Amino acid sequence: MRLLPVVSTLLVAGCSALFAGNFTLHSNDLSGQLTKTQEFAGFGCDGQNISPELHWNDAPKGTKSFAVTVYDPDAPTGSGWWHWVVFNIPASVTSLPSGFGDTAKKQMIHATQSVTDYGKTGFGGACPPKGDRPHRYLFTIHALDIEHLDLDEKASPALAGYMINAHSLGKAAIVSYYGR
In a structure prediction context, what are the per-residue pLDDT tens digits for the chain, which is 180 residues long? Predict the structure, then answer.
């Protein structure tokens, strides 16, 4: 039974190295709960569908670009729901303004916003089914070891997620909840 303490020690040591660093994501618009501002406009929801302001600091050494994803693991699909996928954010950028997810507006930051599970590019806000327990919305910033992912706005969330994870140096997240 000496194996258990050794395995436990290795797991703790491995996890400590995995989560080392101070890479953090913040938002002046988000708290523990999303609001009508971040609720989708469609699918039976009548929110404003405005992406929140996000800012991050202390990216891992060697970061060459960033990606942002928003994912609802509680969506009743069997595979969750992708609400926003943004990549090819230059390494010099450390924030996205509120409303950046509106692809109809000209943005000062050049990045690619690909298709979400709503079938459109840009930010697609929260819209959990009425009566469901509040869903979790994971806003994640990914630091990547590559300047440019060879994908465009037609890339599926699964493909973009695969490429993002294949080039990840680290990530930080904020979790917010929303129910109707």
Answer: 443 333 333 333 333 334 447 999 999 999 899 999 999 999 999 999 999 999 999 999 999 999 999 999 999 999 999 999 999 999 999 999 999 999 999 999 999 999 999 999 999 999 999 999 999 999 999 999 999 999 999 999 999 999 999 999 999 999 999 999
Report the distance separating Cα 167 and Cα 87, nearest Å: 12
Model's pTM, two decimal places?
0.88
Residue that has been written with the tokens 């680290």 in this structure: 170
What values do phi and psi take at 48, rounded to 5?
-90, -15
Nearest to 51 by CA among 3, 121, 142, 135: 121
Burial 114-142 (b: 16+ CB within 10 A, else e): bbbbbeebbbbbbbbeeeeebbbbebbbb
With H, G, I as helix, E, B as strand and everything else as coil, classify residue 14.
helix
Instruction: Look at the domain 21-178 and name its fold.
Output: Phosphatidylethanolamine-binding Protein (3.90.280)
Assigned token pair, 19: 């989560």
